Amino acid sequence: MRWTVLVLLFFGMIVNFADKSIIGLAAKPIMEDLNLSYAEWGIVGSAYYWLYPITGIFGAAWADKIGAKKVLSFLMLTWAVLQFGVIAITALPLLIVYRILLGAFEGPFSPVAYSHADRWFPPKLKGFANSVLVSGATVGAMVVAPLLVAMIVAWGWKVAFAALGGVSIIWFFLFMFLTKESPVEAYEKVKKKKKLEKFTLKDLKHIATSKVALFTTLAYFSTYFIVVWIATWLPLYLVDVIGMSTGQMGFAVAAIGIVSVAIYMGVSVISDYLFKKTKDWKLSRVYVTGLSMLLGAACMLSVVVYQNPIWVIIAMCLAKGLTYAILPIGPTIMINELPERGGLMTSILTSSGNLAGIVAPLATGFVVNLASTKLLGYNLSIGAMAILVLVFSLLFLLVVRPKTTENTSELSEEAS
Q: Major place of localization (predicted)?
């Protein structure tokens, strides 16, 4: 059952990030249809994240209370309704409203999915399980890009959006009928804790004063600038600056996605292997992740000085793959801080990180609009993101020292 759950969560992440990324792939036709400037497009990219951090926290807390399966299924249905509703969009205000609502209902999915997977897998497999979920995000955001681009070219952007709504409905029925809430033993233990314990000021104080939570969140936050930039601006960057055609851009985005998945899954497997051998959180989780982020940020920075198309693709593969190491391993570190509040802890991480989603599209849009050349504008945004990741990954390496605890998910190894 644990693998069925993981596979369906993987496909759920594909849908989630395809919903996010299709807006970037359809940027040119949407901007032409609605007559939008770069600055207005930056607002469209940012609008998705205006409610995302808030609903992420409340949605994950709700899932801790009533069950992840119910919440994930409900969220998927709302995406279907919103994607079909795209057909009615005829102006910028309606596009912004659609993006705000989509972000609001997609906000809780990632933290709830991480928490749900965490319940099914023992510590020695947590990094791998989370890397599978993150790979679903990359597949949805990048690997399926040629298919989404082909749909946009053949049938128009509105039909392509509606097609994703149809996929959401299929996922809903599969998830409802093929999965369970959690392994029996782990579920019973969690239910008993929920009956005996309520969220207290002590829990809040622990979260607020935890250096582990703070600097893990800051590292995640810095990486999310790259996550959002890739989803919103990478397709335009490859076309406007690197000089690729729309078709070439689609395949380049897919190639970056495929290679980066192999890289950050490899980092996660190394992290799990070291944890299994040493039980050392600092070595296996912090050092492996922090060093990967530093190398990835350096690769991102290299694009500012060398724009050869082949190198840009290679550098983006390395930058995405290495900096994304915090995405699967960060939730594991956060849940370890307060295991009984797994959904809340991951939602704090992802929602705080997604604050970057509000800033990154707006900042890039205005910088590109105001810069003397598009190349200068894009280089300024790329350089700023790379330096931010360098700073926060270094702080992550120096400050974060996770505690050693046993998680209730260990019970799931036999129960599932």
A: membrane
Spatial CA neighbour of 198 closest among 378, 97, 64: 64
**Which among 315, 287, 318 is positioned nearest to 302, based on CA atoms?**
315
Domain that holds residue 55: 2-178+206-403
- In this prediction, residue 203 carries a pLDDT of 62
Q: What does the alpha-carbon distance between residue 358 and residue 306 come to, in Å, rounded to a whole number?
A: 28
Structure tokens at 166: 């149809």
Q: Are 118 and 342 in contact (CB under 8 A)?
A: yes
Q: Do the domain assignments include residue 194? A: no
Distances (CA, A) of 244 to 239, 308, 310, 313: 5, 12, 11, 12
pLDDT of residue 356: 80
What is the spatial distance between Cα 216 and Cα 380, in angstroms, rounded to a whole number?
26
Give residue 407's pLDDT: 44
Tokens of 305: 């000085």
CATH number at residue 131: 1.20.1250.20
pLDDT in tens, 218-259: 999 999 889 888 878 898 899 989 999 888 888 898 899 889
DSSP state of 377: H
Q: Are 301 and 397 in contact (CB under 8 A)?
A: no
* Domain-located, residue 416: no
Which residues of the chain are modeled with pLDDT < 50?
185-186, 194-196, 406-416
